[in-house]
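W.,

You were right to be curious about this one. When I first looked at the sequence I had no strong expectations either way, so I just let the prediction run and decided to look at it fresh. Below is the sequence, 157 residues in total, followed by the output.
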Amino acid sequence: MFLFSPTALQQAVMSRVVPRAVTETVPDLLPVARRDGGAGAPAESFCDVDPKTGELLVRVRNQGNGSSLRPTVTRVILFPGLVPGRSSGPEVAEQLTPVLEPGQETLLRFPLAVTGRIFSITVDANLTLPEERNKGNNTVTGFCPPPPGGPSLPRRC
């Protein structure tokens, strides 16, 4: 014998099972790819070099629905390259990224010689934003090909 009518029981269960609407506002910072490739790189590349200064240009966007609330660090690591005379070890450079509101983007300039180099870009590199929505999109890898007539990629035998 039931103590509750089926309708009352269903209502009691549904009131506990139906989730409440969550309106969480959190940032989601990520590096933004250059759509046209630039500098001979493939489309959707992170190889974006200022032709006048040679600086690596890094765009950071907040695609979340909340403000980043505090500045963060964007880090670029250059790995050993193909250009003769360049350092054979990794080079690291960091820049302070300003507070970004939802949808806002900023441009950072890194005075690094990236031609012929593989590099990684990490936004919120010091994990300043523990509440960030998606940490998986914080790091990307890029490559800027050598100029025409410059050193070529190593070939496999």
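Here's what jumped out at me. The first helix runs from residue 6 to 17. And, maybe more interesting for your project: Residues 1-5, 12-22, 152-157 have pLDDT under 50 and may be disordered.

Coffee later to discuss?

I.
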